[in-house]
């Protein structure tokens, strides 16, 4: 007999409803189908059935029946290439993989994150036009917020313009380092010199490389990459800003680990953590660096 599909909740999923959690894990499944599973007692938490609006806790394990239809949705969800971290009727947060452009552009017309999300929502029957609220470079991975329509994007955009959203990154940089502080070198933006502030904290290092946690206080283009290069610790492999790479590496390692903001529609604060991609985890192991607790 095959094992039942099951998932354990991450700490940032504390307080998710059962339906919200299933929508994240089975994005290809219609919401109506997931509701029927819950209504009919097909989803278990331990040995008890869980209902649509039941709130979940970190460490809870949810199990689904081993059915051909669920297997079909699991395979379809994986094929979409979109990992949803949190979703509401107004927006969704996805875990962007490295090496994938967010927008359409030269060389990215056939595959980009926005196109993948549009396909997912269309497959569900949702007639919306998602829009990214902030930037992530092609080689940067991690949490990306998208509004589901123009009004939602406008409301969320106001949070970022007002500095009411916080982003925390993990980065692999060249050279050993320690301590914490602020990087405040101004950067050029749209032909003007603008203030830029990045808080940093070295987490661990070897003789050649370091793992750094960074928090953006402002949001200039390539701010992290520029600030790290200016302080003598460019991103490992960031050739544009002088970063040394390792053999076989063709990109840098920068990951938006946490996105925090107040939901404009219910007034509740929320912090969403994005698990590290496998290539980042492998690089940490190869360099004998430790990221601490996984997101």
Automatic annotation (TrEMBL):
One of its GO terms (molecular function) is RNA binding. Pfam families: PseudoU_synth_2 (PF00849). Residues 90-230 form the Pseudouridine synthase RsuA/RluA-like domain. InterPro entries: PsdUridine_synth_cat_dom_sf, PsdUridine_synth_RluA-like_CS, PsdUridine_synth_RsuA/RluA, RluA_PseudoU_synthase. One of its GO terms (biological process) is enzyme-directed rRNA pseudouridine synthesis. CDD domains: PseudoU_synth_RluA_like. It comes from the Bacteria. SUPFAM superfamilies: Pseudouridine synthase. Keywords: Isomerase. Belongs to the pseudouridine synthase RluA family. This is Pseudouridine synthase RsuA/RluA-like domain-containing protein.
